Every structure is written in C-alpha cells, then in structure tokens.
Amino acid sequence: QVQLVESGGGLVQVGGSLRLSCAASGLTVTSYSMGWFRQAPGKERDFVAGLSWSGDNTYYADSVKGRFTISRDNAKNTVYLQMNSLKAEDTAVYYCGAGFRLVAPSPEKYEYDYWGQGTQVTVSS
C-alpha cells in the first residue's frame, strides 16, 4: 500500500522559513518523479516544485523560484521542500505527489499517481 505523508507545515510570519517533508512508503522515491503542489481556499491545486526520478533535474513555478528548494533523501525515502522568504500568498495546503510514468515532473496534477493528505502552511503578515 502506497502512502505519502506530508509534515512540517505550520504558522510562520512573512519572511520566515519552513521545511516540508513527504515521507513515502510502498514506493521508492528514486523510481518516481515527485512534485509539490499547493491549494489555497477556493483555488485550483497548483504546481510548486518538482524533482525528476533521477534526481538530476528540478523544476519550479515562477512564483517560488529562488525561494523554494526541492530535494530528497534516498536513505529516508523522503522528499523535502525548503521554503524561505515566505510571503502571505504562499498560504495554502501543500501536497506531494508521485508520478511513476513521468520522466520529468509535470505541472499537471492529473499526471501524478499518488498523493499525500496535505499539510497546512499559513504565512501571517
């Protein structure tokens, strides 16, 4: 049974940092392209960052480039999203997704096979 469990969300002030974790079980993150998405109230789930299965390539939404970093720890089978210089507009529920058929991460959420339950990030001004 595949599970993706996000953690690390919380309340932070503008300009602060958080590190989100996505712990995988039932799959190996080195065999999947992994993506972080976020969904604010009343909005679509949007792509934030992605990491290819090889680990060689990363992709970011323009809105987070230079502030967020996606990485993984193969030994822990976990993917991370380091978020710095947080803005109020980063407030959302953050989800990680795993795509087995993806050579590279996709910004399209329907291309991911598995999802976690999400973790809330709230940035206060």
Question: How would you describe this structure in keywords?
Answer:
125 residues; mainly beta; 50% strand
Mean pLDDT: 96
- Any low-confidence stretches, pLDDT <50, length ≥5? none
Give the fraction of residues assigned to helices. Answer: under 10%
Q: What structural category do the secondary elements indicate? A: mainly beta
Taking the alpha carbons of the first and last residues, their distance comes to 40 Å
Major sheet details:
7 strands, mixed
Rg over C-alpha atoms, rounded to the nearest angstrom: 13 Å
Number of strands: 11
Number of distinct helices? 0
Global shape: globular
The SSE string, one letter per element, is EEEEEEEEEEE
Our estimate of the beta-strand percent is over 45%
